[in-house]
Amino acid sequence: MKCPSINNLEFSETSKQAIKEIRRVKAFSDYLAAIAVFGTFANIFAGNGPIKSHYNLTQTDFDSFLTGVRQIPQIGNSVIQREAFKAMMKSSTNKERLFWRAFLKGCKQD
Q1: Is 1 helix (H, G, I), strand (E, B) or coil?
Q2: Span 39-58, mean pLDDT?
Q3: Beta bridge partners of 2
Q4: Higher pLDDT, 43 or 80
Q5: What does 36-101 look like in DSSP terms, one character per residue?
Q6: The model's pTM
Q7: CA neighbours within 13 Å on the CB side: how many for 91?
Q8: H-type alpha helices, 6-49
Q9: pLDDT at 40
Q10: What does the domain layout of the chain look like in residue ranges?
Q11: 3-class DSSP state for residue 44?
Q12: Cβ partners under 8 Å of residue 97, min gap 6
């Protein structure tokens, strides 16, 4: 979807709070994914000799790990979509509502 042109858009306090929350959720989601990967590999290799590291490698369920790590962005996006929908429903102007509708539909600039 192409992004609509919205001139002189001013956000209400509700929308400003929603944007702040969306940024927080996005940053936390990215952080959580990185920590999950780092933590798993640190658990396998950090401070362990070759025998213990080999044992940890054989005992790690990488399929479940990858499934979990892949879910982190999806969970974050779900929370972001919910925040954006709430902001759209509480919008005080049509321009604001148009912005949130375009956000929810994933508009892209050309």
Answers
A1: coil
A2: 71
A3: 108
A4: 80
A5: HHHHHHHHHHTT--HHHHHHHHHH--HHHHHHHHHHHHHHHHHHHHHHHHHHHHT-SSHHHHHHHH
A6: 0.75
A7: 19
A8: 13-45
A9: 75
A10: 13-105
A11: helix
A12: 88, 91
The two tokens of residue 53 are 């590291």
Q: What is the spatial distance between Cα 81 and Cα 75, in angstroms, rounded to a whole number?
A: 10
Tokens of 31: 């952080």
Q: How far apart are CA 88 and CA 75, in angstroms?
A: 20
Place of tokens 């790990």: 65
Cα–Cα distance, 94 to 27 (Å, whole number)? 29
Predicted confidence at residue 56, as pLDDT, reads 65
In this predicted structure, what is the pLDDT of residue 57?
A: 65
Q: Which residue has the tokens 């919910």?
A: 82
Taking only the tens place, the pLDDT of each residue in 57-108 is 676 667 777 788 888 889 999 999 999 999 999 999 999 999 999 999 998 8
